[in-house]
Amino acid sequence: MKCRRCKAPAVMDIRRHNASFCATCFLHHCTEQVRRTIDDFKMIAPGERVLVAVSGGKDSLALWDLLLDMGYEADGLYLGLGIGEYSDESGRMTRAYADKRGAKLIEVDLRDDYGFDIPSGSKAARRVPCSACGLSKRSLFNKAALDGGYDVVATGHNLDDEAAVLFGNVLRWSTDYLGRQLPVLPGEHGFPRKVKPLVRLGEREMAAFCVLKGIDYIVEECPMAAGNKHIGYKEALNAIEETSPGTKHAFYFGFVDRTHARFAAEAVPQGGDLGRCDRCGAPTTAEVCAFCRLVERAAAP
Amino acid sequence: MKVLLRNPRRELDVPGPLRVNALLAQLDLNRESVLVIKGDTLVTGDAMLADDDSVEVRPVISGGAA
Ligand code: SF4
Ligand SMILES: [Zn+2]
Ligand SMILES: [Zn+2]
Questions:
Q1: Integer distance in angstroms from the first to the last C-alpha of chain B?
Q2: Cβ(A270)–Cβ(A191) below 8 Å
Q3: A161 min Cα distance to partner chain B (Å)
């Protein structure tokens, strides 16, 4: 196969675009897609400071790399989850990347700073690990963004992630989630804006981006993810995509462009109807926010 | 050829020559879910792999719901 742009030998084929690219043109393609996404959804204004949620995985490191190369003021936030060797390795990858780029990395460690880790904390609090983990990530990213005066939190969710979440929400008709599933969540009620600049790029493209840019990322999977629904949805969508390339894109962007508005009225806004958490001051509908309740139960000896 | 698979890490011996897509079909892997890396670069589905090549078949699906 030859590169679509320059006719050099191709290294990467993207079936849904019916195109192949050489390394240089593929990296250019990724940058274009991200530029277009940021512009179309008005994700980041000139001069705004971005906090990138980095995990050591391919998506978040690729996102950070793209934003830095595009000239954004983007710092990283790494959350130590205490998931054994997986967390040690992902922390090493993240720090190595930040060092290589001379980029600023903020670290928060659940064990050191809050007295629990995901495996033991989720058990004590009787939550499934990914639920305790997701709640912790959301709260701590919000807090770090507000403390650091960042305008935007950027996460590495790619097209496959968003299509899989959409698939799950449609299967259960979770209309409140459908109502707020967009590539941008506006900042409101003391929450920073949340953006997903990688939604036009597939997961295979993000892995290819890292390989071609020489970014070391953690290939091993989080042991807590094994067998979760989300992975099952991705596999199901990939089975369809294999015979009908472009399905994931049509499914997700058909929703964003043409269907989302029908659910907007049912969306629960970030934080809902707002008071402040008695413990930490975060916006919440309850007296004590869900994260502080998690900390209390998870950190109990 | 030597084929390195990940998650869990293991190595297979597959006789070549063989095209990348044929290798993936033989291993019953979905082309959407993996990258094939030969030496230090990526190869496309139609690329030919020789008997003395070493390739890595790297899964790209990542997991958490959050
Ligand atoms: S798989 Fe679950 S526990 Fe592991 S990092 Fe993702 S959300 Fe957290
Ligand atoms: Zn090219
Ligand atoms: Zn709180």
A1: 38
A2: yes
A3: 8
Ligand nearest to the CA of A226: 1
DSSP assignments along A195-227, one per residue: E-TTTTS-HHHHHHHHHHHT-----SPPGGGTT
Contact flag A130-B59 (C-beta cutoff 8 Å): no
User: Can you tell me the ipTM of this complex?
Assistant: 0.95
**Which pLDDT score is estimated for A265?**
87
Measured in angstroms, the CA of B15 and the nearest CA of chain A are apart by 23
Tens digit of each residue's pLDDT (9 = 90 or more) over A19-69: 999 999 999 999 999 999 999 999 999 999 999 999 999 999 999 999 999
Chain A residues 140-199 within an 8 A CB cutoff of chain B: 160, 165
Pairing of strands B18-19, B48-49: antiparallel
- Tens of pLDDT, residue by residue over A189-243, are 778 999 999 999 999 999 999 999 999 999 988 999 877 889 999 999 999 999 9
Amino acid identity of residue B60, one-letter, is V
Q: How many CB atoms lie within 10 A of CB A36?
A: 12
Helices (H), chain A: 23-40, 58-69, 84-101, 118-124, 129-147, 159-171, 175-179, 203-213, 229-243, 247-254, 290-299
Judge: A238–B32 Cβ closer than 8 Å, yes or no: yes
Rounded to two decimals, the pTM is: 0.95
Distance of alpha carbon A73 from alpha carbon B26, whole angstroms: 46
Report the chain A residue with the minimal C-alpha distance to residue B65: A230
